[in-house]
């Protein structure tokens, strides 16, 4: 296939970059440099291994970049065509489903949903917060437990999180967690690995064996049980739950959400925790992810639950408002004491699952579940009539069919277009799903029994021969909130989704200048093919010969990322940056153990590091020692020397962020790496700020042994309001064998696959983690060659320095490198202003809403500051609008300083201003309505109003409600 280079007049890079030509020239002139290469010379300290300028790729290709938009789409679809889609009936936690077209178009294809950020600024996130509250409500209702989080990374990690939660709740560093042998193999593997890292014992036995209490371990933390086993048997767990509780342990139940519409829910059974995957609630297979894992817990465990919780609070006017509760940014506050290292989860996919429930309603979900069971029962009847046996009669959607040669039957089914699961030499697993038709039933029966497909008989009637077990069926209603009943028509649902989207600020409306988070252009071309069935419809455990296209896409992505980062190998398995951190640290621990240095258990973490660094180190079973920052914000080298000396022979690693979290290129980064290496440790370089390095420097050249790379930051995967995130982990050759291997059931790696030779324990349930999002990063790199990436990095640095320079008189930058230059982000210091006037950084963040801006990063990494990252994709007009907004706010603060207005009555403290306030009959404020609503000239035509006033965070934590309250509840304050 011919590859097309971007044309001279319309290269993609010129669409990706916000400033080019005269606009870029004006910015460079303000910085007193001639061109972008002068920016590199000025901002990057001498002595660092800077790459030379690059020429544009000739010829352009997917592996080198530089394709035009049509060429990139053509190349991706050609690779997708190499896949060989089959009817997927493998199961094992992954099921085809029907994503309603309205959800595919209005959520997965809508930048208002895909480009929004994590809802840390709640006033401008009310739409996505309501959607995630709906997801929590779905999970709470289906599981019968009162508190749920907004999502977890997948089912396997949810099972692992349940096991580690048990240890936290017991405040125990030691003890045993029982893992039901009936759990899916990938769940067992991930949970065992996580427990082992924390020093927790695991015991793998069947749920029925738990009834012998005398045989259970003495220090029992709890048990994770399978609601329905991986072989399909619906279990009566009442006895096992009673025995574990009698021994003082907690019980978690791993359950399928559709099964919970017809079978007894975990809360009904007596569980303390419920986990699982909401994938089959409308989320495509995506070759393994991104999929929304879930967890719900009892009231007693609500402060132990990992991840985020959306809660209901009230705003300054007393109106109902949503916000993140309890764990809000806890990973940045509690660090190694956080409940988990989860930062980004699967918010976008949780929204899809929630809206799937809204679309179908409770009866619709029951009907889908009933139809799935009936199809499985038809297959059971058919194979029995043909003389075969089924392993169990109590099933929901999965059968274990016994036959003489299971492998031959699976091969026969594959040849007939169906993927079934080889359970063992004598059993084939068959899982029905929402897409299973009567024709599928007939063909599967024929394939299992060895009939010719042309002779397949009509699907036999089940006639109630194999009903759901009556004693284990569900009691009571679910999804009773009006939202799950009001939107049966598409017109109603479309308008509901539009109303929610209109309450938010996303990249489709405005710059999101969040330092450390890189919210940049997510071009439409990148997502042009990601929902194509040839990509999104493939099961993660499909045979390797059916997934040649997927493996070639992932291989090209892996090779390009490794080269850009300066490493030898990459694992694409981690489904978030934090999971990439964990995978890298586990690889370090395994490597050290392999060379006789297993006593090394200490991770050095700079005080300025991302909070997930310390939480990930703790999750990997390491001690955390903090290294101080010097006065200029860089690592205090002398304190590092002291830490190395004090922890001699125990140092396993240091976790650096480069450029530093303080927004500067630290000149001593290579010295730090040399000191740690000399002490016997490994160097982890956090890839969160890679957007300042691509094409300029490589973490592997700075002394890094391992880095994770945030594809949702540097490589332009949309953030989705809090996920999907993808965090591949890149390593030098000596660590490669210890990267995450393929979970049981995955197709074994073959020559040319990007993960050959990896033998570490998996960290996700799928071999390639959130593979479904990776075509977006692949497309970005197919469009951008190395020269384009260098230009993007330098443009990001130029934009950050332009903002710092323009705001120097209003809000000085806290830290800078040699010559006063920052990297791709700058920290604006408000602490002196706050001391003099009482105006806080949060006040400024809320006032920015009135200007139609998302706030910069608030109070991280330094309390009382705002960290600004404009990225390379913002036009100069948007940069100037932000500068004008900040200058206007500074003038408003000066009025307070001069005593012209009291702080509590000021436009800054009473921000944001809602439409209801400025259009209402009552106005008792000392400033005019126009100043509140239209603080800059020209805003009258295109004005975003926050739907709520400033939210009362403390009230929400005192009165936690994490499910949708009834319409009258808030009026009565009964939440």
From TrEMBL:
PANTHER family: GLYCINE DEHYDROGENASE (DECARBOXYLATING), MITOCHONDRIAL, GLYCINE DEHYDROGENASE, DECARBOXYLATING
Name of the protein: glycine dehydrogenase (aminomethyl-transferring)
EC number: 1.4.4.2
Functional summary from the UniProt entry: The glycine cleavage system catalyzes the degradation of glycine. The P protein binds the alpha-amino group of glycine through its pyridoxal phosphate cofactor; CO(2) is released and the remaining methylamine moiety is then transferred to the lipoamide cofactor of the H protein.
Assembly with partners or alone: The glycine cleavage system is composed of four proteins: P, T, L and H.
Domain Glycine cleavage system P-protein N-terminal: 14-447, 630-747
Gene3D superfamilies membership: Aspartate Aminotransferase, domain 1, Type I PLP-dependent aspartate aminotransferase-like (Major domain)
NCBIfam families: gcvP
Listed GO biological process terms: glycine decarboxylation via glycine cleavage system
Cofactor(s) essential for the protein: pyridoxal 5'-phosphate
Pfam family, one: GcvP2_C
Broad enzyme group: oxidoreductase
Residue span(s) of domain Glycine dehydrogenase C-terminal: 793-913
Known catalytic reactions: N(6)-[(R)-lipoyl]-L-lysyl-[glycine-cleavage complex H protein] + glycine + H(+) = N(6)-[(R)-S(8)-aminomethyldihydrolipoyl]-L-lysyl-[glycine-cleavage complex H protein] + CO2
Similarity-based family: Belongs to the GcvP family.
Keywords from the named record: Oxidoreductase, Pyridoxal phosphate
Superkingdom: Bacteria
Stored InterPro entries: GcvP (IPR003437), GDC-P_C (IPR049316), GDC-P_N (IPR049315), GDC_P (IPR020581), PyrdxlP-dep_Trfase (IPR015424), PyrdxlP-dep_Trfase_major (IPR015421), PyrdxlP-dep_Trfase_small (IPR015422)
Sequence positions bearing N6-(pyridoxal phosphate)lysine: 713
GO cellular component: cytosol; glycine cleavage complex
Species the sequence originates in: Actinomyces slackii
Molecular-function GO terms, alphabetical: glycine binding; glycine dehydrogenase (decarboxylating) activity; pyridoxal phosphate binding
């Amino acid at each position: 296939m011919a590859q097309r280079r971007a044309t001279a007049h319309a290269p993609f890079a010129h669409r990706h970059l916000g400033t080019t030509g005269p606009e870029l020239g004006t910015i460079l002139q303000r910085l007193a440099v001639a061109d972008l290469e002068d920016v590199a010379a000025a901002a990057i300290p001498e002595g660092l291994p800077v790459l030379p300028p690059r020429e544009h790729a000739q010829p352009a290709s997917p592996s080198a970049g530089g394709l035009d938009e049509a060429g990139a789409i053509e190349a991706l679809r050609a690779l997708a065509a190499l896949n060989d889609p089959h009817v997927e009936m493998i199961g094992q936690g992954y099921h085809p489903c029907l994503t309603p077209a309205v959800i595919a178009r209005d959520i997965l294809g809508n930048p208002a949903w895909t480009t929004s950020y994590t809802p840390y600024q709640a006033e401008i996130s009310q739409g996505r917060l309501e959607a995630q509250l709906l997801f929590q409500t779905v999970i709470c209702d289906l599981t019968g437990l009162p508190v749920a989080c907004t999502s977890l990374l997948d089912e396997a990690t949810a099972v692992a999180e349940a096991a580690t939660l048990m240890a936290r709740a017991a405040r125990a560093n030691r003890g045993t967690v029982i893992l039901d042998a009936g759990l899916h193999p990938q769940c067992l593997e991930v949970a065992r690995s996580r427990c082992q890292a924390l020093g927790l014992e695991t015991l793998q036995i069947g749920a029925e064996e738990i009834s012998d209490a005398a045989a259970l371990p003495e220090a029992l933390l709890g048990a994770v049980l399978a609601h329905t086993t991986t072989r399909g048997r619906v279990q009566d767990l009442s006895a096992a739950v009673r025995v574990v509780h009698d021994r003082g342990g907690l019980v978690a139940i791993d359950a399928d959400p559709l099964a919970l519409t017809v079978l007894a829910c975990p809360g009904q059974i007596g569980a303390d925790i419920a986990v699982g995957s909401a994938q089959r609630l409308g989320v495509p297979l995506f070759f393994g992810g991104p999929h929304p894992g879930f967890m719900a817990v009892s009231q007693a465990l609500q402060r132990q639950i990992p991840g985020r919780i959306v809660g209901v609070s009230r705003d300054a006017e007393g109106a109902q408002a949503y916000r993140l509760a309890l764990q809000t940014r806890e990973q940045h506050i509690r660090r190694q004491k956080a409940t988990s290292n989860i930062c980004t989860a699967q918010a976008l996919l949780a929204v899809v699952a929630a809206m799937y429930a809204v679309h179908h309603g409770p009866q619709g979900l029951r009907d889908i579940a009933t139809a799935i069971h009936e199809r499985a029962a038809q297959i059971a009847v058919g194979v029995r009539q043909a003389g075969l046996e089924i392993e169990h009669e109590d099933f929901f959607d999965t059968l274990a069919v016994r036959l003489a040669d299971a492998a031959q039957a699976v091969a026969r089914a594959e040849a007939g277009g169906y993927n079934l699961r080889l359970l063992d030499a004598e059993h084939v697993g068959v899982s029905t799903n929402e897409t299973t038709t009567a024709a599928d039933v007939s063909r599967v029966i024929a394939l299992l029994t060895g009939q010719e497909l042309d002779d397949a008989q009509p699907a036999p009637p089940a006639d109630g021969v194999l009903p759901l077990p009556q004693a284990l069926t569900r009691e009571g209603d679910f999804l009773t909130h009006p939202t799950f009943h009001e939107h049966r028509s598409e017109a109603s649902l479309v308008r509901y989704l539009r109303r929610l989207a209109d309450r938010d600020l996303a990249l489709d409306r405005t710059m999101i200048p969040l330092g450390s988070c890189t919210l940049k252009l997510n071009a439409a071309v990148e997502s042009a093919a990601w929902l194509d069935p040839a990509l999104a419809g493939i099961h993660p455990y499909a045979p390797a010969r059916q997934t040649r296209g997927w493996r070639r896409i992932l291989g090209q992505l892996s090779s390009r990322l490794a080269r850009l980062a300066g490493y030898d190998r990459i694992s694409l398995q981690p489904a978030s940056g934090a999971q990439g951190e964990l995978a890298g640290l586990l690889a370090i621990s395994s490597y050290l153990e392999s060379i006789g240095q297993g006593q090394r258990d200490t991770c050095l973490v700079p005080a300025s590091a991302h909070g997930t660094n310390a939480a990930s180190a703790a999750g990997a079973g390491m001690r955390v020692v903090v290294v101080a920052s010097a006065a200029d914000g860089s690592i205090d080298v002398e304190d590092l020397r002291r830490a190395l000396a004090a922890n001699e022979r125990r140092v396993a690693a240091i976790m650096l962020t480069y450029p530093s979290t303080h927004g500067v290129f630290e000149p001593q980064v290579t010295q730090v790496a040399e000191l740690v290496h000399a002490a016997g440790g490994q160097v982890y370089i956090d890839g969160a700020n890679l957007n300042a390095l691509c094409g300029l420097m490589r973490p592997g050249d700075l002394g890094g042994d391992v880095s994770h790379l945030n594809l949702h930051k540097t490589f332009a995967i949309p953030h989705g309001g809090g996920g999907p995130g993808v965090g591949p982990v890149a390593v030098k050759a000596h660590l490669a064998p210890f990267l995450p291997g393929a979970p049981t059931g995955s197709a074994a790696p073959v020559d040319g696959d990007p993960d050959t030779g990896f033998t570490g324990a998996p960290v996700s349930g799928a071999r390639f983690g959130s593979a479904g999002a990776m075509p977006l990063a692949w497309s970005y790199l197919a469009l951008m060659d190395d020269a384009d990436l260098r230009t993007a990095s330098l443009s990001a640095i130029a934009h950050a320095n332009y903002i710092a320079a323009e705001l120097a008189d209003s809000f000085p930058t806290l830290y800078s490198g040699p010559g006063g230059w920052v990297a791709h982000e700058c920290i604006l210091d408000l602490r002196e202003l706050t001391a003099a006037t009482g105006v806080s950084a949060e006040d400024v963040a809320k006032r920015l809403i009135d200007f139609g801006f998302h706030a910069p990063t608030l109070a991280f990494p330094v309390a009382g500051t705002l960290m600004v990252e404009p990225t390379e994709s913002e036009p100069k007009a948007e940069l100037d609008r932000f500068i004008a907004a900040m200058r206007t706010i500074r003038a408003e603060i000066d009025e307070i300083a001069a005593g012209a207005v009291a702080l509590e009555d000021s436009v800054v403290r009473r921000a944001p201003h809602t439409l209801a306030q400025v259009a209402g009959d009552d106005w008792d404020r000392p400033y005019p309505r126009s100043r509140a609503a239209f603080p800059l000239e020209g805003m009258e035509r295109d004005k975003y109003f926050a739907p709520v006033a400033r939210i009362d965070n403390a009230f929400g934590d005192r009165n936690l409600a994490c499910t949708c309250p009834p319409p009258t509840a808030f009026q009565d304050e009964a939440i």
